[in-house]
Amino acid sequence: MAQFTLPTKITLNIVTPERNVVCEVIDEVVLPGTLGYLGALPGHTPLLTSLKIGEIKYRVGSQWRYLCVSWGFVEILPDRVTVLADVAEPAEEIDVERAREAKASAEKRLKNPDAEFLQEQIALEQALIRLQVAAKAARTPS
After folding, report:
1. β-strands 54-60, 80-90: how paired?
2. 107 belongs to a structural domain
3. 3-class secondary-structure state, position 117
4. For residue 24, what pLDDT band results from cuts at 50, 70 and 90?
5. Which of these three, 53, 70, 92, is where a domain ends?
6. Does one domain contain both 16 and 75?
7. Following DSSP, what letter does each residue of 68-106 receive, concatenated?
8. Which domain holds residue 67?
9. By the 8 A CB rule, do 66 and 137 touch?
10. Distance between CA 130 and CA 117 in Å, rounded?
11. Which of 36, 82, 106, 138 could hold 123 in an S-S bridge, CB 3.0 to 4.6 Å?
């Protein structure tokens, strides 16, 4: 009888239509699934789910790294997590001033009764997540 051993690490791949954002061996990852945040450790049961706007955080040793993500899908396997995202932006690449401007602009447009409410709400949520992720990275020592 073959003996099965659980993996001790996960290979994380985060890909957008433009580029491969992350390809790294990690210890754990937390993702924004459409039904709520979910975590994956080595040996996780296979799972396929969609993603919403939110934060991806992953740990290598004791160091956490952060990204903002908008829409996509994730496949979780015992030794691998693959994220196919419309948008994924590592914290260190976030232009905080641009995110602040996008937040203010979305808030202003939401006050207009003729605004496309859902579209503006999404823009606001994306800006807020970008600011949240950038702030976490700024507090995390390298």
Report:
1. unpaired
2. yes
3. helix
4. very high
5. 92
6. yes
7. EEEEEEEEEETTEEEEEEEEEEEGGG--HHHHHHHHHHH
8. 10-92
9. yes
10. 20
11. 106
- What is the DSSP code string of 29-45? EEEEETTEEEEE-TTPP
> Do 16 and 85 sit in the same domain of this protein?
yes
Burial class (CB in 10 A: 0-12, 13-18, 19+), 61: exposed
- For a pLDDT cut of 70, what percent of the chain falls above it? 95
Q: For the chain, how many residues are written?
A: 142
Structure tokens at 68: 């903002």
Predicted TM-score of the model (pTM) = 0.84
User: Are residues 50 and 72 both part of a single domain?
Assistant: yes
Q: How many CA atoms lie within 13 A of 139 on its CB side?
A: 7
Question: Do residues 69 and 88 lie in contact, with contact meaning Cβ atoms separated by under 8 Å?
Answer: yes
Note whether 36 and 71 are same-domain residues.
Answer: yes
Read off the CATH number of the domain in which 100 is found.
1.20.5.440
Looking at the predicted structure, is the pLDDT value of residue 3 above 90?
no
Q: What's the CATH code of the domain at 36?
A: 2.60.15.10
Number of domains forming the structure of the chain = 2
Give the DSSP letter of residue 116. Answer: -
